Known about the structure:
It contains 7 helices and no strands. It is an all-alpha fold and about 160 residues long. It has helices at about 5-25, 35-50, 60-70, 80-90, 100-105, 120-130, 135-140. The chain is elongated, with a radius of gyration of 24 Å.
Amino acid sequence: MSFKVVVISVMLASGALGGGLAYFSASGTVPSVKVVTSDASDMFRSTMRKFDGRVYVRGPDYGICIADYGRHALGKTNAEITLSCECFDKNLRLLSGSDREAAIAALTPSEMSSKPASGAAGTQVADLHGTSVTATRVLRKCGIDPAPNGFLSMRGTM
């Protein structure tokens, strides 16, 4: 059976069930057929999205990105940070091993003691995190700047 047939069948069945309960129930605990049908279709739709590969579901790397990158993404709106982290999460699923670890490490600020003495800013970040070429491409594609040196603290938060 196709996906559309299953969705239509479940919606009709939930509508019939809700309508029957609303007709026979005089207590008023079942709100209306429309509410019961929409609740059932929403629950079914969210369940089916888990099995559909085309629908993006946030993974654990999204939380890492929001926690680490969101802390030092100055001048960006929450929507920009969310889109960047969703892009990061989607692309990080394709990486493995050291590339994945390097991309995650580029989000966290390094300690001040590991700061190199000289060099351009771009080489300092690459030297600090040991970022691979693949990890750098993912970061650039998603518009994520590697973390600066040292920990940022905002007034009144720490």
